[in-house]
Amino acid sequence: MPGTFECSLVTPDEKVLDEPVAYASFPAHDGQVGIAPSRAPLLAELGDGSLRLDFPDGGKRWFFIGGGFAQMKDNKLSIVADEAVPAEEIIKSKVEKELESATAMESVGEEAVAKKQRAVSRARALLELFDKHGNKH
After folding, report:
1. Contacts of 16 (CB under 8 A, 6+ apart)
2. Within this chain, do residues 64 and 116 fall inside the same structural domain, yes or no?
3. Is the model's pTM score more than 0.90?
4. Which residue(s) pair with 5 in the sheet?
5. Same structural domain for residues 11 and 69?
6. Each residue of 42-80: pLDDT tens digit?
7. End-to-end CA distance of the chain
């Protein structure tokens, strides 16, 4: 379909999505990256944050993405994420508890500090995505 590219999103547990999209924006480890059709090849390490997919019919979907890699090649975007949660499946009360637990984590030593920072960052990103695009019902 003109003006689109194939997009696949997989995690270690499942194939989440494999559809043509008109635009994608994902969280690279060093900032948000936008992808349009016929983009030059790209390989990026993913960070934690929001994946936005715009579909040819004008619809949009949002996911929380946690770690992994993205590759754009031959008009196909392949996203292999450690975690992918559709915005509509985020449960706010559960994430608020995760943020509380993450905030209370011990942070003695470099590894513990990094683990705590990632857990807090992940929970905050999930809450932000829920507040903007989650199912409010």
Report:
1. 9, 10, 63, 84, 86
2. no
3. no
4. 21
5. yes
6. 999 999 999 999 999 999 999 999 999 999 999 999 999
7. 35
